[in-house]
Amino acid sequence: MIENADASLLRAAFQAAPEGILLVDPQHRIVLFNRACERLFGWPARDALGEDIATLIPDWPLRPSEASAPALARREDGTALTIALSTAIVAVGNAAFVVATARELDETELLRAEREGAASNFQRLVEGVSDYAIYMLDVEGRVASWNRGAQRIKQYTAAEILGRHFRTFYPPEACADLEPERNLALARDRGRFETTGWRLRKEGTRFWAHDVIEPLRDAGGTLIGYAKVTSDITEQRRAEQVIREADARIATLIETVVDGVILTDRQGVIKTFNLACHRLFGYAAEDVIGRHISMLMPAANAELVQSFFRSSRASGDDDRLGSVREMTGLCRDGRTFPMDLSIGETVQEGESVFVAVIHDLTERKHTEEQLVQAQKMEIVGRLSGGIAHDFNNLLTVIVGNAEFLSDQLKARQDLRSLARDIGDAGQRGAELTQRLLAFSRRQTLKPVEIDCNELLESMHKLLRRTMREDIAIDTELDVGLRAAYADRTQLESAILNLALNAQDAMVGGGRLSITTANVLLDASYQLVNKDVRPGNYVLVAVTDNGSGMPKDVLDRVFEPFYTTKEVGKGSGLGLSMVYGFVKQSNGHVSIYSEPGLGTTVRLYLPAAGNGRIQPAQTSDAVEHLASRGEVLLIVEDDPFVRSYAVMCLRSLGYTVIAAIDGAEALQILDGETHIDILFTDVVMPGGISGWELAETAMARRKDLRVLLTSGYALDTIAGRSHGRADLPILTKPYRKAELAQRLRDVMEAPPSGTDC
């Protein structure tokens, strides 16, 4: 009875307990479930008994057998609640049962549990991070906590570093500069400070670190310490440095290559436009970036390039990719030039881009034209030489027999006269064949040292008797002229031929000017005239102020039998003979002419005893003539002469702006760009001559200096001008030293626009 009374008492206490009490068997089934549990979980005891405990407490299988901690529970209606759950193991017979007490947590307990749980979880998280050094500093900067990542990166254990100042991690130079203290102050003042720099490991080695420092404050805002996160980004920095250096090398390569390089996207929109492209097309990079590459070509070529980008986007492949095509480029000023265009594809930042490489073919085309012309002249010369040789044999028979008949026909004066006419005609034929031999360079030359000044003085009477009375003859001879090495007779014949051609060009009279000078044709001049051998030469120039010649005539003047004269008034062999003689003498011929202005033919004969190739004047020799920071505007329509002049001027230190004609030059002068010197050709297309340009420019800019240049004789140019005759003129071709000297003279003289 007593035993039953105790059991009844226990059951009453079990049911009356204010907290839920339940017993769970080894199979996780509920075997006891008091009234407090019914109220807590919303389950009647009859329904709960025998249920799996996980139905009420889902994470039961994961919890330790003996524990006390908050748990998530589920009521019968499905709603959730947080309970304080305590469990313990009790033995019933040979089986291990779990007895649990449960009660619902109030709001205060929930908040405290959440904070404790969050702190515990955060602590475990921080301790488990190995990729970052995460640690706390006190207000003085001493280390107050230390995680696994800090130990891995900085190599200190917690016992070794706790309590030490964090300046331990900074290199000596940073400590001397008070960088650690400054970083803490910046974090305190800004609320957060982020930086990168070198830091030290325990053994003294350095690593590149990314540091973040945040101040910690209590609820009242008082500073209580700092949180610090450090990551080792040495490898990242090294990789970025490699990429930056590679990008810099590529950018430098793109900007320094002589060919144009353009990067576009898959639609052909320009992304990169290098310096060589600026020189080729005349556009600045900002003018074309964002526009389609087809803008740099005439309409026909532009459509071809646009079709390439359309087909590449559609098919992802095109047989034009990587191939080289000859196309035409379109400059900003409307000029065109031949070019090779090759397009390749690459990937940049995951996107396909196209790389277009443009090679200027202008010089190659010019060289090819010169080669074709030289080959044509060589072929014609060989043909002419062969004809002349055979024709001379025939003429020998004709002239000889005519002389024999003349001797035999003394009694028949009428027949003897006919024989003499035959002989005279044969002699004229012999002279023509001699000219053919001169052109073909197969005549026999007898080169000697010649004083060209003395030769011209001796020819003056002959020229005066030969030329019409309405033609004045002037000579300007260099008193220090070197001796030339050539055939004297052939040189006399060449000068006479040039004088007769000049006479024919001056129908209503005019002026014939003959000048001599010592010149050095250097490697720079050879860039424009491929057939010239650099060295010292004696120049003989013959100039007239006659009708002049258009370009299509100039291109053929040295061809044998080519003439613009009426039938019967010229053989077309005069200039070709001059050309052949000078070339056979290892010299050079140049001709300048313009309709209405006249013609200048220059003969460059090797200097005697000093005709070997001479080095170009050294930079030291012209160093005192170099630019002193001046800006120069050059106006020249010939692309090869312009290219040569720009190269010389830049090597002298001038800042060079180039224009192709007077109209473009005036546009530049109307702008705000400061210009010290105007260096302009006299004869240019477009309706504005160099004289007119100079007059207009000096009127607009009073402090402007002007230097003119021309391939014509100075007196002829001055005589035809309507502008100021006191402007300095540099005669073409000019050497770098001559150009430097004249420019320095111009800069040291008063401005061209002043009256002195």
What is the end-to-end distance? 147 Å
Q: What is the count of DSSP helices, taking H or I runs of 4+ residues?
A: 24
User: How helix-rich are the residues, as a percent range?
Assistant: 40-55%
Kindly provide the radius of gyration, computed on alpha-carbon positions and rounded to a whole number of angstroms: 50 Å
Q: Which structural class do you get from the secondary structure elements?
A: alpha+beta
Low-confidence spans: pLDDT under 50, at least 5 residues? 118-122, 438-444, 566-573, 611-620
Strand content: 25-35%
**Strand order across the biggest sheet?**
2-1-5-4-3
Let me know the largest β-sheet.
Answer: 5 strands, antiparallel
**What value does the average pLDDT take?**
79
Give the overall shape, derived from the CA principal axes. elongated
InterPro entries: CheY-like_superfamily (IPR011006), HATPase_C_sf (IPR036890), HATPase_dom (IPR003594), His_kinase_dom (IPR005467), HisK_dim/P_dom (IPR003661), HisK_dim/P_sf (IPR036097), PAC (IPR001610), PAS (IPR000014)
EC number: 2.7.13.3
Keywords: ATP-binding, Kinase, Nucleotide-binding, Phosphoprotein, Transferase, Two-component regulatory system
Protein name: histidine kinase
